[in-house]
Design brief:
Leucine-rich repeat, LRR (right-handed beta-alpha superhelix); Leu-rich_rpt; 3 domains; LRR-containing_protein_71; about 5% strand; elongated; 14 helices; about 50% helix; LRR_dom_sf; alpha/beta; about 350 residues
Amino acid sequence: MLRPLLSCGIKCATTTMDSRRHQATSLSNVSEDILLKVGEACSDPLNPKVLCHLAATCRPNLSVLRPKLTELRILRVEVRVLCSKSTNGTTLSSLATANALDWEGSGLTSSDLAVLGRLLHRGSLPCLEMLELSRNQIDDHGIGALVQGLCNGTLTKLSYFDLACNGISGPGLNSVSESFVRGSMAKLARLGLGENKISDGGMKALSTAIKSGCLASLQSLELRRNQISDLGMAELAPALSVGALDSLAYIGLSRNQIGDPGVAAFTDAISVGSLAKLEILTLAGNPIGDGGMRALASAVASGGLVSLHALYLDHDGPLGTEHPQLKAACDSRGIRLP
């Protein structure tokens, strides 16, 4: 029943006054609950005229929809404040057609993220391809408010999502991963999660999402400077082994807590060629010993990383002296060891 009433409500808001008087009759006979649902569907802060015209169709409608009008007025002010914090000159009038939104280091609050989340949830940003939210001290509550309700078809064009240098930990990454599984960002190509507080629990949620196939378009995954250990790598390994990231060209795992068992889990997972497009792998700043270096050497020599051209690792002296097997394998394939 709601669909035809919504159609009628929108028509009432967009046609001539004579037509409105005729069409308003249909809405005057419905319950307040239904009318409020129609009003909610028409409450677009980027296009407030729809709700305003709907409320003006007859006096009873105005009385019922007055709280929605007040709520929309407040939300519109909040959206204007959000736009004022952007670093790429986004305005209220340009928001609906924006393909890139940049709030890097803009001091976004949880309230700002909730406002942005409402816009995303109702599909008010259909052209969005890039969302930059790094360096904002976003915590789990803030990211939860942002992604709550995001589902299939919400961000159909988004290819770049950067959340680096915030305060996201396990619960926050759980929320983000759940939104991935719901299909909210099916075309995502670059995901930045570096310099947060992600540990093995968060990696379990992210790995589950990856294994489901919802991030099949991902080409770059940045996880540097988190708290990922061997257990986190063991969670990621099954997702890699089934080819769920077969488009990945870059993965950043530097400055974590990954040791030999974690490297072994990683190399075992990719031994079947599941990361055939990977070009850059960063593992510097992890406690990797001789066993991990041998595992990497074997993976390179066996052709498990056929496209790799740069491998970032820590080494105190010449790598050929410290780990000659890995150095020889990389040299034979033309892989740089910066």
